[in-house]
Amino acid sequence: MTRRLPLRARLALLTAVAVALAVAACAVTGWVLTRDQLYGQLDRSLRSAPMGPPSSQWMALQVCSQEPVAGRRNPFGASQVVKADGGHCAVEGSQYVLTVTPADVEVARGVRTEALHDGTTADGTPMRILTRPMREADGAAVSIALPLDQVEGPLGTLALLLLLVSALGVLGAATAGLLIARAALRPVDELTGVVEHIARTEDLDTPIPAEGADEIARLSRSFNTMTAALAGARERQQQLIADAGHELRTPLTSLRTNIDLLLRSEETGRALPPADRRRLLVSVKAQMLELSSLVGDLLELARPDEREPARESVALHEVVGRAVERARLRGPGLRVEADAEPWFVLGDPPSLERAVVNLLDNAVKFSPPDGSVEVRLKGGELTVRDHGPGIPADELPHVFERFWRSPSARSLPGSGLGLSIVARVVEESGGEVSLEPADGGGVLARVRLPGSPVRGSDAP
Fewer CB within 10 A of the end CB, N or C, for the chain? Predict the structure, then answer.
């Protein structure tokens, strides 16, 4: 039921319940202690009182009257002699006739030395009774008693007062709890208002006030961090869309132009020379391949980062061998030298092959027509070295950014996504990748992947 209440009401209710329990415990404890004190005082009065004039006790024992004996008023409420057989005789001046209990009889028989207990008179009046052996005669005891109303009356009044005070305390606690909850939750209300505004307007740049070092301030800073991350993700998404649109526009425009030329030649009946027609078709095919590569790269980069990639044992040296063969086909005039030692890693096979192919494609693209590319895999480190123009030092920090392309490479085919995919795949496999200037010119790419030269024992 409490889950359906607002947080403010729940805090006030819990505060009131806690205070009610505390007040009730204090009230009950106070009442019990007071009761013990009053009963102790009453018992001390009974113990310190004389048991009555011996002559009166002896006379009561002799006469053994069943009715109170008229005469001098006894200072105690009742006083009577109890015989060993359970009979009893009122002492002179006694106001009440006490009900004899087995404990009183045991005192008269000498089994017990004393009996102190609650009891009643013959007409049911509650009494506190003390019974002791009668010194003047064996087989008899004397009981004296005081009415319990002098204890029960104050206790009843005290209980009523404690109940009223407890009720007022609980009511005050509930009111104070509501006020405290309202004051304590004011920062939460402000935070809720700002978050609702962000959700309604999608304005992720709206800052959430975060003052102090309490839990609310920590929550506010966490929300600010989250909105900053969301704003960054949205900005990257918008940038990705803009860059993708820019990269797609060039091949699509060229593709549409070439197709328009082919269609116009068919519609007008003026056939293009075979060489021109073939050149157009080759261009269309190249642009289609470029589009397919770009779409594939975009799909790879669009894969959510939080998705757990497939991880299985991959023979990296075999992946390198297949990538080298593809590189030789794409650069028929180049010398692609490969030296790969066995190395097994944990990762996603298609992604790893795509990363290695991208590295070699990058080297082939920037190599001179009669140049060479050296590929080495040794001790878990894959190196790809080309003899191209190299990368300026100020451009090295940007080579793994999406859609980034060196000014000198913008005239070459490519989307600027290849090295981004390499960095992502290597990171998912627990490795590292870097590019650095090579001695004598060109670029040296290094990829370090944890693994083992024996299948089955590779481990990051």
Answer: N
